[in-house]
Design a protein that fits this description.
ten-stranded parallel sheet, Udp-n-acetylmuramoylalanyl-d-glutamate--2,6- Diaminopimelate Ligase, Chain: A, domain 1, homotrimer, mainly beta, 29% strand, 39 strands, UDP N-Acetylglucosamine Acyltransferase, domain 1
Chain lengths: 336, 336, 336
């Protein structure tokens, strides 16, 4: 059903799991915002702030909550979860093509690879020895897939992503451009000489990545020192995230961009970690924890809930006065 | 006039827009600091801290402010904006070669591309379908330019940069290595099942990048969900910046390294955002706003000016005592 | 001795510089944690928290401190620095192969290159003009090494790393995937027109990288404006670090992931900079300084020791109340 780019509303409502109120045969050719939609487009209302646009939108159909349906006179898809229905519909209008079995002539294979027959592999991809790739997977140009890597079915690797090797990638996982998987963790032993030099700890582990994972552009995931680094099923990682060696991230946890997680930290299931968060090493964070943007997590978290650190933004002039007081806070309080 | 690497001072002064006081025919072959310059070099004074070096420098010419000219006895270029004149002169000594029309034999082209005749394209570049590239543009080795991308004139893509597709890049724009443009934004709808799983929101928009933009190494720019992500003319982005889907950055705004800007935030013109700043999503920041390093911006900014968050650095021992008090600040104040 | 993957304990103890107590001829085939080790594995105790595992581990040998040897009845390697001995042993079990002189047919060389005979160069590597590569060096697939670059002996470049050019890389240095070396620094002069436009400062310097340096995946190092950016011998840089133009980092300093160092800052020897630290430009940090995670360094540091900024993490609800007070801290203190 995908990629036709013209669907009757009946088909869309079935795919989205929503109740159609209106013309079953109405043909929809696009998805757009309430503001920009034309009569051939479907749109959605999931944020109350845009409710007034229901009166003026030109959309040919709107996805909305049951208690909003009276505010829109046209065709509608009614559902308790409009944002989810919108997400489903977005899949219908995606231009991603299914893999067709094209392997570019320039692709380099190592020994003993097992590649399913319908896999697409783009120009200049380099694949090591003992690599297995499941059916329906697409590997775009310029990727590097190192030795002893197993890639599941319907996986996508976008251009120039790299896997060092000894990695498992589950089905339906998406890996974006410039991602690095399996790089050396940051492990060095002090030599205890006068120059302060370091002895490298060679990294002997691998990386396990589950099914339905997404890994954003420029994110780096180091392999384990001895065991594996683990990204469980359904984990969503945004761009430019750093995952150090032996980190373990639980099922369906989502991590926003620019966050760094230091070595051997374990994060539970269904957590949401906002952007630019830092989490130091060797911590355990339980399930259902939420961390707000730019928080530094320096101790384990045993209770679900939301956690934060930092100070509020202010005019620099005002902030500077408050910050100067912070620098003497202990002595100020002692004097009280 | 570029790349000759030997210029009479008269030519340099005209190019830099500064007034020459001294020998018009003096030949200059390099640009250097006051400390390291030799007699064949031109140098500059734009920071008062280095003023005393005017007495000792061996430079064959110095760019300086009118009120500094009495402190240097040699040839000088006098201007109200010495740093700008220095920047102009730096162009004269850059070794960047003009594009010459060389397309490496290994380059892969999709269908219906329109490539100007004098474009340089390096080894292993992969270009999708319906790509247009304007005259004088250079695309270095290993880049990926996806379908439906239009690249203007005199653009540079450094090695291994990636464009997913549906992107417009204006004239004279510079894109550094490992940049990713057009990756999927971080959009997922909660399925509301017991496992906390996510439904991907397929990203259907593109990216518009203006003229005279520079995008630093490793920076990632996601494409829009439905509309486009927009980087206006003259914007300067440093390395390892994250720009989420549907962000809009106004003309001539400069953003320093490691900053992350979350989805749908709009930033005005002529702003300067320092390094490691975090800006959360769906905000509006007006023109002429300045954000200091590592600030977290959590609300819209309607007034020009400078904004900050965070606490000052201190000895860890002292900091720890103050930070412990911060953790009880509300109850301390309530007791007063 | 490397890569045999089966060593008698006598050989291991000599390589690790530790005293063997036990069976010299015992064959060891792997390295593992106390928890997971089997009888053919060697393990180690360097963290007191795992001491109780000495009673239950199945390891065929344990590396430990002299005062711990009575707690383990099997074979042991006794040393004052067990973590260092473990690191040495990790090298024995690394699967890194020595370079063998294979240069893939697709490699592109510029003019006047000098490549040692036993260098390995992977598929699709592009090497510019006047590049020198020393013996034993490995350059993996997809790397770009620009003009006028000198690479020492036994260096490793992992896939898709980029060097713009004018770079020196010392012996035994390791450069991970997606690293960028020599990109343009972020230098722009205000034109002082009404639109706030910028004149690019062309970057004319290079990058000097010492021996025994490691540079993590996705790290970016800009070349100098006029002089060089300098990374001294033994420096260890983790993933996704940003090093701006003309930064100088002293011998054996280690920097953790996601840290950014702004232009012209000089850092001393034997410093440790934790993750997600920001260091602004034009500072001088002396030797033996330690910076804790996510600290913003805004002034020079003349005394060794540990430095921090930020506030502790708390429940968001509690944090918010304290943070609100911070925003009025100066006026609160004035009223006291």
């Amino acid at each position: 059903m995908k990629n036709k780019m013209a669907y009757p509303l009946e088909e869309i409502s079935a795919f989205a799991g929503a109740v159609l109120v209106g013309d079953k045969e109405k043909i929809i050719t696009g998805l757009n915002t309430l503001e920009n939609a034309i009569d051939e487009d479907i749109s959605f209302l999931s944020n109350k702030a845009y409710e007034s646009l229901l009166a003026t939108t030109s959309a040919g159909c709107v996805i909305l909550l049951p208690d909003k349906q009276d505010f829109f006179v046209g065709n509608k898809l009614v559902t308790e979860n409009p944002y989810y229905a919108f997400a489903k519909v977005s899949e219908l209008f995606s231009t991603l093509a299914a893999a067709s079995g094209e392997v570019h002539a320039s692709v380099v294979f190592g020994s003993s690879c097992q590649i399913a027959s319908d896999v697409d592999i783009g120009a200049n991809v380099v694949i090591g020895a003992n690599v297995t790739i499941g059916r329906g997977t697409t590997i775009y140009a310029g990727c590097y897939i190192g030795d002893n890597t197993t890639i599941g079915e319907n996986v996508i690797f976008y251009p120039n992503a790299c896997v060092y090797g000894n990695t498992f990638v589950g089905d339906n996982t998406i890996i974006h451009s410039q991602v690095v998987i399996g790089s050396d963790g940051f492990g060095f032993a002090p030599v205890r000489d006068s120059r302060g030099s370091w002895q490298k700890v060679y990294q002997l582990g691998g990386v396990d990545i589950g099914c339905n994972v997404e890994i954003g552009a420029g994110t780096t995931i180091d392999r384990g020192v001895l065991d594996n680094t683990v990204i469980a099923d359904g984990v969503k990682l945004d761009n430019q995230i750093q995952i150090a060696h032996n980190v373990r991230i639980g099922e369906n946890t989502a991590v926003a961009a620019c966050t760094g997680i230091a070595g051997s930290t374990t994060i539970g299931k269904r957590c949401t970690i906002a952007g630019a968060v830092g989490i130091i090493g060797h911590l355990t964070i339980t399930d259902d924890v939420h961390i707000t943007a730019m928080t530094l997590v320096t101790k384990s978290i045993g209770q679900p809930g939301s956690y934060s650190s930092g100070t509020p933004m202010n005019r620099t002039e005002t902030w500077r006065k408050n910050a100067a007081r912070f620098n003497h806070l202990d002595s100020i309080v002692r004097k009280l």
